[in-house]
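Box 4.2: Ligand-aware structure prediction
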Amino acid sequence: MDKFVIEGGERLRGTVKISGSKNAALPILAATVLAKGLYTIGNVPRLKDVHTMSRLLNVLGAIIEWTDKDTLRIDTRNVENYVAPYDVVKEMRASILVLGALVGGIQRATVSYPGGCAIGERPINLHLQGLSSLGCEVTIKEGYVDVIAKRLRGARILFDKVTVGGTENILMAAVRAQGETIIENAAREPEVVDLARMLKKMGARIEGEGTEVIKIKGVDALTPCNFDVIPDRIETGTFLIACGITRGNIAIEGCEPLHVQALKEKLKETGMEIMEDGNTLKAAMTRKRPLAVDVTTNPYPGFPTDMQAQIMAFMCIARGLSAITETIFENRMMHVAELRRMGADIRVVGNTAIVRGSKMLSGAKVMATDLRASASLILAGLTAFGTTEVSRIYHIDRGYEAIEEKLKGLGAKIVRRKDEDMAS
Ligand code: UD1
């Protein structure tokens, strides 16, 4: 297992290029089983999760190859298998996204039932209810969800909770249903919009993506397409905070500023200067310490839960008290204990973390517990006095492309090492 060793205290400077969005790429790759043929998907990040989705598509019968640094060629002409096995699904919960794609594409799906994970239970009841409403026969047996769609028909689906994956799965099934489907309380995340954009390119009839009500008129057939994935807004946000926490001055290129609006507003309140210039964000922090801000996570366009851990690391050195409330996942505070090991003063009351900023964190050995928690520990390490070792960084490799290379390019002192502590 690898770890990162970080010497804190360097102020980041320079330019960083943002990769394609992981959370947009995953459903887009899954959607290639909706219509058999050849696809070229660009701006795909080279990440463990993308690799896992490719492996899953392989199992289903697709042939996938990198044709360029960030481009995948996908051939789904021979996709006949509809079983997503346990050994792949257990690696990545987002494997569940093949459910809607297989139902829409070949009217049958058997997908290993995903378990809980480090941040919560993460049920899929809303995905399954939605598919039932579309006329699917859904059964659970021997740890698998089995879906048979003899006749998909449009329906009105009201999600009682905003679900990104659920909205994506229903979109992919509904594009091939007979008649109209209306998804109410739909997720408005940019990744959902990007999937809809691809489906439309394939010939789907979709209206209202990016709003709470999405209308889909089913079509008889879809055709393969070439498509470029949007930039990763969580990577963008993480670099914004990396700039703030190190009192840096950086340019973040190839991003979509519109997608980080809520975060940008919060960071400005802390005293950061952030300017937009097309697809570049220029960020600088001249204050010695950020001002404390309160944050509550919410579905898009609210403050993203995927940035909660990172802003908490930032607030650990803020001037004042910050209340950070997590409303999306029930167990997403695992980074608190690790941040405390670095000297952070954090008290958790229910789903709120009260952070009392201190002048400085101190380097320590810490352990990553999930993807975004690992990002927060790296951020804390960048500002801490002394050396921080972040172990179990396989979590970060799931979702951040070449993070240490990008940070090094900005002047950070970070190296990847074999973790002998873990090996012994
Ligand atoms: C996606 C993102 C993840 C992000 C999350 C919330 C991907 C691959 N992952 O995850 O990074 O943190 O959105 O923005 O895009 N829920 C139910 N029943 C369901 C489905 C969800 O109760 O059937 C609950 C979940 O437990 C959670 C909330 O709804 O509390 C939101 O989950 P959801 O939006 O579905 O998250 P994911 O799509 O899994």
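In the box above, the bound molecule is uridine-diphosphate-N-acetylglucosamine. The chain has 15 helices and 24 strands.
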